[in-house]
Every structure is written in structure tokens, then in C-alpha cells.
Amino acid sequence: MRVKALETLLTEKGLVDPAALDAIIDIYQNQVGPQNGALVVAKAWADPVFKARLLADATEVVAELGFYGRQGEHITVVENTLERHNVIVCTLCSCYPWPLLGIPPGWYKSDAYRARVVREPRAVLAEFGVVLPEGQAVRVWDSTAEMRYLVLPMRPEGTEGMSVEELAALVTRDAMVGTGLATVPQ
To answer: Of 49, 85, 107, 150, whose CA is between 20 and 30 Å from 173?
Structure first.
């Protein structure tokens, strides 16, 4: 409500053009967002050479796909495995790979998430519905202005032979942050 009130006030004073705001929102909803990261993950699942390149130098690889710019200058991809589950946080503010994931969700920016996921990651993950096996380690990565992270979730079983587009549909924003898992196909 505060954002809407501020937008209304700025519009009434002639300081903001509502059409310009709509255009910016459209860019982040339809051109920049989790669908970009999902495509990157799906390509990594489908192509071992692409995956190796992505893990070696994600910034270069995602830039080749056109996913770069503000909040996406330095990207590292960390891979979930049976031995380790990765989760991303920015303990200082809300550094987030916008070109790959869009605008960060409110919970990512919350003080509670930023503090608790570092201290008790398994409890926080359980609140998101992610219950990990006892032997699987959890690694928390602290995103910064110098480095932003993307989680490469484990590929779900039963997805052999699926196209990149079909695989991308299984990848959620939360799975790429580590607070979720890839969707299992029906």
C-alpha cells in the first residue's frame, strides 16, 4: 500500500510517468526473471559441455545467453548434489542475480531469512518444505555486490528425453535460490 501511495503521489506531482513505470515492470516480469535462470538450469541438465562451462565461468556463459547487466555482473553457479545442498542469502542487504531470477521476493530481503538461514539452514529450509536427508550437508552462500549465486538444482528423476523447454518448466525460482527443489514431472 505504501508503494502504491508513493507512486500515486509522484504521478500526481508529474514526477513519474505511469507508462514508464508499466514498461519497467513489464521488463522485470516478462524479459528479466526466473524464466531466464530456468533456461540456464535446463540447458545445464541437458548438455554436459554447457554444464561444465557454466560451473567453470558462469558470468561468461550467462552473458553469452544475453543475461547480464545490473545485478548480474558476477555470477557463480553452485551445484546441488546428493552430498551437498546449497542455499543463497545476502546477509547485508538483498544482492540477487536479477537478470537470471528477476526481482527478489520479499522473504529474501527479510531480516528473519537473512539471519536465520545462516544460523539454522535446515530449519529454514524445512519451513520452505525442503527436508533434506540427514547425511546431506548444507552450504550457505553469502551473495554480495561482488558475487551473486545461482543454485543448479539436481535434475529430477524421470526427465530423460525431455526437451530444454520441458525441463525449464520444472525449475522454480526457489530451487535456484536453494529454498526449493526442482518440480518432479507428473
So the answer is: 49
